[in-house]
Amino acid sequence: MKLFLFSVILSALIPAMVFSQNQNAPVSDFISKADLIIVAKCIDVGPVNKIGISRVAVDVINILKGESADQLTYSGRGALTPGRYYLIRFPEVNKKEKPAARDQIRETVIEIVSESEAMKLNELSVEIAVRRTLNIRMGRLESDIRALSYELDELKRLQKEN
Q1: In angstroms, what CA-CA distances link 72 with 37, 119, 123, 130, 148?
Q2: Which residues have CB under 8 Å from 133's CB, separation 6+?
Q3: Per residue in 81-140, pLDDT tens?
Q4: Which residues, including other chains, have CB under 8 Å from residue 96's CB and lie 6 or more apart?
Q5: What is the tens place of the pLDDT at every residue in 65-88?
Q6: Is 58 exposed, middle or buried (0-12, 13-18, 19+ CB in 10 A)?
Q7: Cα angle 157, 140, 88; round to 5
Q8: Residues 6+ apart with CB under 8 A from 66
Q9: Domain ranges in the chain?
Q10: C-alpha closest to that of 54 among 82, 93, 94, 83
Q11: What is the largest CA-CA distance in the chain?
Q12: Distance of alpha carbon 62 from its chain centroid, rounded?
C-alpha cells in the first residue's frame, strides 16, 4: 500500500517538475525582457500632460542591467517624488523601428525605502536586487493596506452609529 501511494505521488510530481523547468519564473521574465534596469534617485518630475505622462529626470545610482548615462530623462507615467529612490525597469524595445522608443513605452517603477537600501542593491546580483526590492515594497504596501482597512472599518462603524 505504501509503495502504491509513493508511486502515485511520484508519478504526479515528475511531470510537474519537468514542466516547471521549461517555464521562466515571473521575476526571471521581468529581468530577461528588460532593456534597462536601474536604481535611481529622482531629480525632477515635470508637469503631467493630458494623457498622464510627464518628463522625469533621475540620477542613475546603479545599472543592474543594460547601459545608461549617469543622468536619464524620459517620459513616464510613474508617480515619482524628487529626492526618493526607485528601481526603474524599461522593457525591451526594437531600436531599429523607433530610435526614441524608450519615450513610448511603459516603464515599471518600484520605490526603494531609503538611500541606504538603494546603496545595498549595488552589492547584489540583478535577480536578488529585484527580488529584495519587490519583497520590501510588497510588505510595505500590505502593511499600508491593513492600516487603511482598519481605519475604514472604524469610520464605517462610526457612521452606522450616527
Answers
A1: 12, 18, 22, 20, 35
A2: 87, 110, 112, 121
A3: 899 999 998 887 655 554 454 455 678 888 998 999 989 888 888 888 999 998 899 999
A4: none
A5: 888 788 888 888 778 889 999 999
A6: buried
A7: 135
A8: 34, 35, 36, 37, 38, 90
A9: 26-148
A10: 82
A11: 71
A12: 15
Look-up of cell digits 500632460: 49
* Prediction pTM value: 0.71
- Grid cell, residue 58, equals 533621475
Strand partners, 112: 85
CATH 2.60.40 fits 26-148, yes or no: no
Length of the chain: 162
Instruction: Report the alpha-carbon distance of residue 162 to residue 159 in Å, rounded.
Output: 5
